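Hey,

The postdoc asked me to send both predictions to you directly instead of through the lab channel. I've kept everything plain text so nothing gets mangled by the mail client. Protein one:
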Amino acid sequence: MDIVVCVKRVPDTADAEVSIDRTGKDIEKDDLAFDINEWDNYAIEEAVLLKERLGGTVTVVTMGSEDDEEVLRRCLAVGADNAVRLDDPAFSGSDGHATAVALAAAIKELPYDLVLTGAVAGDDGYAHVGPAVAELLSVPHAALVTAIETGDKAVTVHRELEAGLEEVVALDLPAVLTIQTGINEPRYVSIAGIRRVARREIPVKGAGELGLQPQQAGAAGARVELEAMSLPETAQKGELLEGSVDSVADQLVRIFAGKGWLG
């Protein structure tokens, strides 16, 4: 089975002090560490597991600068066979749709039975690149996939729904699946694996090589314009009520009345 995995390098903001940059449309990233998008990490692991069981190839694709080759080499180190980086000044300002257009154009040139992406990117949270790629490739897709069962020319997948529900869907191949965390246990990247791929040349393709017109790429091809970004407002601190049960009840009544909650 030939599998293509779309991956992304994202900043780690979990324990960082985040601030908005001077453009007002992004965060300051100079002091942030970067790593593979968490959901994409599960996607590449699932692809390698399928290859180990069924044979075939795994190709990873990302859109980004030379710095983003870090995540491609990580994927090669854990078992991917090939990598492609998409880079072109024309890609600047891409939204989810324009990103999907570039990825789909690259995937069309590759052999594939399955295309895997993370369910969502940790930096923008749009969660629509995978489904958009499927639409552009004219193949079926399933989102938030938590298990994959392979057949002859089809796959049966379990996908996460709201309220703890699960749906089981059968899809003809080729297909696009967006992978949810928890589908597997991603393996560690060995030092030997990193050394093995450290000098490997990764091909780079631009908009022209992908057959994209100027109006399809970057900001020109975007469907969404980001106007401004802001940090979430600090929530008001809670108030601790002390005293007897009757005293606390009286305090609550006064608070609710003051807010107009008692009608």
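Protein two:
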Amino acid sequence: MTEKKQARGILRKRDGVPGKLVLADGTVFRGEAFGALTEESAPRVSEIVFNTSMSGYQEILTDPSYMGQGMCFTAPQIGNVGCNSLDVEGEQVYVSAVFTRDLSPLVSNFRAEESLDAYLKRHDVPALTGVQTRALTLHLRDHGAQMGAIGSERYLDSELQELARSQGSMLGKDYVQEVTSKEPYEWYELPWDPESNTFPRLSPEEVWQRPHVAVLDCGVKRNILRLLLAEGFRVSVLPATSTVEEIHAVRPDGVFLSNGPGDPAALGGIIEVVKGLVGTVPLFGICLGCQLLAHAVGGKTYKLKFGHRGANHPILEVQSSKIEITSHNHGFAVERESLPSEVFVSHVNLNDDTVAGIALPEKRAFAVQYHPESSPGPHDSRYLFTRFFSQVIQ
């Protein structure tokens, strides 16, 4: 029997250890421990947020943009399809803690290799199930995302609250240095091919003559790199610590500004680099990349009350009046009034009228405040990669 077949029908195995989440405002949510949370575990502190997606929990867990955040899943049951080595967006689990209403007692998927419980345990991520996630979500919606501490019942509520309060908020926090690549590397993996059940790869020889895009890695997701390659680029990934000179040294035809975690206003060094790139090569940014581009041209960002995290947010493309169904993961937004006159607001979030995209046509630069590579539409926003390619080859 293969490992995958053995993984089917995995029953949950938990020791019933009680645990709790205590928010900075003193609100307590109790549940049953799974993953890496044990009675002896030291508390973990993170900003507690929620995601309204009904599926894709493994992609969420491994998205570097969630560094420093504990995730409340609003879907009533999590873990049904287990976990595998393919549905990942980064090198590790970046989410700091997990909260679910019901951890599925059964893993039932032909691609499963292990249960969510085992997966989180292996990645040292504490979790609680049996949590009143609806109440937690409504609390965050009404009072705003805030720091929280997860721990076992051996800790007093007041102890965990003080730990949470001592960490302040996400404002001013730079997590990019923790998720960016340490060294440059090339990317050769294409999007998933259902016929071969693999991620096909190209050889260095096959891509060498292509237009060259340098990706400034602030926490880039793998599917972004796959789609850039599929669009026709040769893809080089550079650390977020790269200077303007180091970026130009690889002779890119265009530069991509990636997604990533934390407060964009805290990334002064990267903002200066982007400022030095504007107007020299075509630029395309996603999520944090949009915020960095806004800062680079004189704009500002602000922290949203509870952020946008889900897979069905309606976005209006202003020029065409078309509406895209999009995937989101951000806690900050661009301040519309701060943008200089030469910046065009290209996309608008129809839920709250926040800026969802900006463009500087004369500088051949544009960016969106959502994730077109996540394909919730499923292909509503794929045109953005084509638009970038067209600008590069002009």
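Summary for protein two, as requested: Confidence is low (pLDDT under 50) at residues 1-13.

Thanks,
C.
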